[in-house]
Amino acid sequence: MTVSAGSQRDADGRDREAADAWAAVRAARHGATVPAALEGAELCRMLLPVARPRALVVAQLGQSLDGRIATVTGASHFINGPAGIDHLHRLRALVDAVVVGVGTVCADDCRLTVRRVEGASPARVVIDPGGRAPLDAQIFADDGARRLTIRAEGVPRCPIAGVETVHLPLSAGRIAPGDVVAALARRGLRRLLIEGGATTVSAFVAAEAVDRLHVMVAPLIVGSGRQGLTLAPVRDLAFAWRPQAAAYPLPGGDVLMDCDMRTCAGGSARGEEQADERDQDDARRRRLHADG
Ligand SMILES: NC(=O)c1ccc[n+]([C@@H]2O[C@H](COP(=O)([O-])OP(=O)(O)OC[C@H]3O[C@@H](n4cnc5c(N)ncnc54)[C@H](OP(=O)(O)O)[C@@H]3O)[C@@H](O)[C@H]2O)c1
């Protein structure tokens, strides 16, 4: 893990560097080369791995020190400080589509637009298998961005003009995250930000459908409420997911953990399954040895 200090806003010079770096990152999204002088800028190091790939799934969670992404009542505005929220808007500006679960739409009535930084708003997608998102939700507002709803097969199409309905099959009551990624890619949306909430991000991580995970940790203890990532239990820390990660302290106290999830694919569950299989093989061998 690398730790970088400093801020993008601590002096005039740094402000200029941040503005130049953000312009370079946005240009890199369209294939432009980043000037060597900016390659090392903090913003470039944080965001170029998101900007450069033509296809990518990045997931984000903003959480407290005790791992909460919202209070018991579902309030999550705002766990992170202004610099953390700017970062979220930059992520939105770099992707083709931002994806949330219907729980977030119901709790937050989020707009999912880019407002705090320069950049275009992406398409907005809600995973809503039963079609329970309110029809007047802001995510469906006709502001020029593409709007899509992912529903289970057999559920009626969304009646709002201009909102695309994507029907996907349920398996054990859930839609496979890989099917979501493939369906959106077929519609030209290949760079995705899975913005929340916890259920949705956890499902994408568990399915190994996430390339990068950005966890923005705020110096705040909520003490109760909605937990962030929740995955299958592991019996030993040897089976915990251990992605390569870099930490970036932001002005105001938030710390971004940028995790490369491709370095730990299946880190927990699959490793544990293999360990179980090895244990069973050993036991079988011991039994055969004893019998023989
Ligand atoms: N701090 C942050 O970064 C952040 C970000 C976003 C949201 N939030 C907070 O998180 C809370 C909402 O999170 P949440 O975990 O309750 O809800 P959520 O993840 O937003 O939505 C979960 C629901 O979306 C549908 N869904 C998502 N993925 C699915 C899949 N693969 N297959 C089938 N259905 C799928 C299901 O709907 P059905 O129940 O209809 O089956 C599921 O119950 C809110 O309080 C919000 O404020 C925090």
UniProtKB/TrEMBL annotation:
Pfam families on file? RibD_C
| Bacterial bifunctional deaminase-reductase C-terminal domain: residues covered | 57-226
Checking PANTHER family in the record gives: 2,5-DIAMINO-6-RIBOSYLAMINO-4(3H)-PYRIMIDINONE 5'-PHOSPHATE REDUCTASE (PTHR38011:SF7), DIHYDROFOLATE REDUCTASE FAMILY PROTEIN (AFU_ORTHOLOGUE AFUA_8G06820) (PTHR38011)
Q: In which pathway does it act?
A: Cofactor biosynthesis; riboflavin biosynthesis
Native species of this protein?
Answer: Hansschlegelia plantiphila
Region of interest: Disordered: 266-292
Q: What is the lineage of its organism?
A: Bacteria, Pseudomonadati, Pseudomonadota, Alphaproteobacteria, Hyphomicrobiales
Entry's Gene Ontology molecular function annotations: 5-amino-6-(5-phosphoribosylamino)uracil reductase activity
What superkingdom does the record give? Bacteria
Name under which the protein is recorded: Bacterial bifunctional deaminase-reductase C-terminal domain-containing protein
Q: Any idea which UniProt keywords this protein has?
A: NADP, Oxidoreductase
Tell me one GO biological process term.
Answer: riboflavin biosynthetic process
**Keyword Oxidoreductase applies:** yes
Composition-biased stretches, type Basic and acidic residues, lie in 281-292
